[in-house]
Design goal:
Elements: E1 11-12, E2 18-20, H1 28-37, E3 45-47, H2 54-62, H3 74-86, E4 88-90, H4 91-103, H5 105-125, H6 129-141, H7 151-154, H8 162-183, H9 189-196, H10 215-230, H11 242-254, H12 260-269
Antiparallel strand pairs: 1-2, 3-4
Bound molecules: fe (ii) ion (2 copies).
Residues 110, 114, 142-143, 224 line the site of one fe (ii) ion.
């Protein structure tokens, strides 16, 4: 990434320490200095699936509508949970997950299911086992930066204004700083995914509008949008139905915002009969309807993207 991201708000760790102030430019040097100055603060890693009630909660979400079809193949799901069981994250990540669980149940649930769904797709697209393990670490950590966003913004039930939208967008830069600090490595896929999961393949995303070209981040980006559509949101009490959500994903892939092959893989998992991804035919016909209480309506069909709202026109 050539352009340096600028922090518009401070980034605070769970222990209250301000890691970087508002106005900091996230150059390689600034991040390297943060890591160097905090080199004595190292964090033990813990297995995600052994922490609190995460395993039970995730099992319940995966086997409830609308996800039960995706996770209906016993062998595939067993292999996925074998991968998930190995995934470890630095201890402060769990303080943040607990914060979400206690204060923002939507984000808690979202983080868990994006962990499982993105890891499922990662197994199809990433062959190298070390890379796959890092991808699985990145999946639940993608929205960690929301810890730095006021709950009043995260849980707002009406349309976000421009200023609030900018505050929400801060979660990408904040997540990058937090995860670079936790892992002591700004190149770790978890840090990169936190920063880039709202970027798009055609450069239409944020925070920088760069063209996404990273398989791990592309997978999380697709799963992130999908879950945001099919879940109830504070600002949209009715979830998208599965057909309409998949049509939105198809539309995004068709206009080059997200990767076609990953979109097809997700669609394939939602079908009774699964085929090899290159053979997965997808219609561009639109028959679904977004929920009538959807506040965010963009100019395109994929109007309701969670952290990328477009005000009604
Ligand atoms: Fe996000
Ligand atoms: Fe997300």
């Amino acid at each position: 990434m050539t352009e340096a991201l600028k922090l518009h708000h401070p980034v605070q760790a769970p222990n209250g320490k301000v890691l970087l102030p508002a106005g900091a430019l996230l150059t390689d040097q600034v991040i390297a200095e943060l890591i160097h100055s905090t080199r004595h603060e190292t964090f033990g890693h813990m297995k995600v699936m052994q922490y609190g009630s995460i395993a039970d909660n995730l099992d319940r979400i995966c086997h409830s509508p609308p996800y039960e079809k995706i996770f209906s193949d016993p062998a595939r799901t067993r292999s996925l949970f074998t991968l998930l069981a190995q995934v470890e994250l630095p201890a402060p990540v769990f303080e943040i997950i607990d914060f979400f669980k206690n204060n923002d149940p939507y984000t808690y649930r979202h983080v868990l299911i994006v962990f499982a769904l993105s890891s499922l797709l990662a197994q199809d697209f990433i062959e190298d086992s070390h890379e796959l393990h890092c991808a699985a670490q990145a999946c639940p950590a993608h929205d960690l930066g929301k810890f730095c966003i006021p709950l009043a913004v995260l849980k707002k039930t009406t349309l976000l204004g421009q200023a609030e939208r900018h505050v929400l967008e801060h979660h990408t830069a904040a997540g990058y700083v937090l995860l670079s600090y936790f892992f002591k490595n700004p190149q770790h896929p978890a840090a990169v995914t936190a920063r880039d999961h709202h970027e798009r393949c055609d450069g239409s995303g944020y925070p920088l509008g760069t063209q996404l070209n990273n398989r791990i981040v592309e997978i999380v980006a697709v799963c992130d949008v999908f879950d945001a559509l099919i879940a109830k949101r504070p600002y949209r009490p009715t979830a998208y139905d599965l057909r309409t959500a998949l049509e939105e994903i198809t539309d995004m892939a068709d206009r080059g915002a997200i990767a076609w092959d990953i979109a097809k893989a997700l669609i394939n998992y939602n079908r009774k009969v699964r085929v090899p991804i290159p053979k997965c035919a997808v219609s561009l016909e639109k028959r679904g309807k977004p929920p009538s209480d959807n506040l965010y309506r963009g100019t395109g069909a994929s109007s309701c993207i969670p952290d990328d709202p477009v005000e009604a026109k």
